[in-house]
Amino acid sequence: MVTAVADSTGVSGSTVGATNAIKAQEDRFLKLLVAQMKNQDPLNPLDNAQVTSQMAQLSTVTGIEKLNATLAAFTKSQSFDAVGMIGHYVVVPGSALALSGGVGTAGVELPADADSVKVSIYDEDKKLVRQLDLGAQEAGPLMFAWDGRNDAGTALADGVFSFAVTATAEGKSVSPVGLTVGLVKSVLMDASGAALSVQDVGEVDLGDIRQVL
């Protein structure tokens, strides 16, 4: 993948080019069809079914070309929109918890109401340093803050920690999704579209973004 670069031509240039190509293809087909009809054998004229079949083929090809052009334009538009996120913080699925200035912020997404939600925070050596009890929570996204202290009350140095969330409802386990907050560093592009490079998280698809801060 490569980093996206702004294109001054915008999406409209690509769309116009694709439209012109489709129009030229239609013109060539119609000229060939007219020539074929002019030069047909009067004793063995073209069958209506043949003409209809050829027109249907043109319609199918033209439809596919237009669909491809539309998808290409949409993908490019997505890429330009994504560039605007550079320098902003986003909330995405993940387990990283960055501690900065003695404050760490992350979240959890619950698929259903939970009677109990607990967060376990680990240092870079995977050692448990703190457990947070968030109590009962409703379904949906929930953000939480950590004061940077371990279970003994000692303030820890800034850095990147990790966390895991457990939740239960009526004694049964609920499957929560951890949400991490990260800074968008750049936009990545390939044939499938755009993605974000998020600090301490890695590559993130646009569809995974829960919130832009």
Protein model, in words:
The protein is an alpha+beta fold and 213 residues long. The chain folds into 2 domains: 7-83; 89-212, Immunoglobulin-like (Sandwich). It contains 2 helices and 13 strands, in the order E-H-H-E-E-E-E-E-E-E-E-E-E-E-E. The chain has helices at 10-38, 48-83, and strands spanning 2-3, 89-93, 96-100, 103-110, 114-122, 128-137, 140-146, 159-169, 172-174, 177-190, 193-198, 202-205, 211-212. Strands 1, 2, 3, 4, 5, 6, 7, 8, 9, 10, 11, 12 and 13 form a 13-stranded antiparallel β-sheet that branches. The two termini are 25 Å apart.
Can you give me a brief rundown of this structure?
The protein is α+β, with helices and mostly antiparallel strands. It has two helices and 13 strands. Helix 1 packs antiparallel against helix 2.
Keywords:
single chain; alpha+beta; Immunoglobulin-like; 2 domains; 13 strands; 31% helix; elongated; disordered N terminus
Say what oligomer this is: single chain
Which architecture of the largest domain per CATH? Sandwich
Indicate the radius of gyration in whole angstroms: 28 Å
- The low-confidence parts are 1-12
Walk me through the topology.
Elements (H helix, E strand, L loop, with lengths): L1 E2 L6 H29 L9 H36 L5 E5 L2 E5 L2 E8 L3 E9 L5 E10 L2 E7 L12 E11 L2 E3 L2 E14 L2 E6 L3 E4 L5 E2 L1
Antiparallel strand pairs: 1-10, 2-10, 2-13, 3-4, 3-8, 4-7, 4-10, 5-6, 5-8, 8-9, 10-11, 11-12
Helix pairs in contact: 1-2
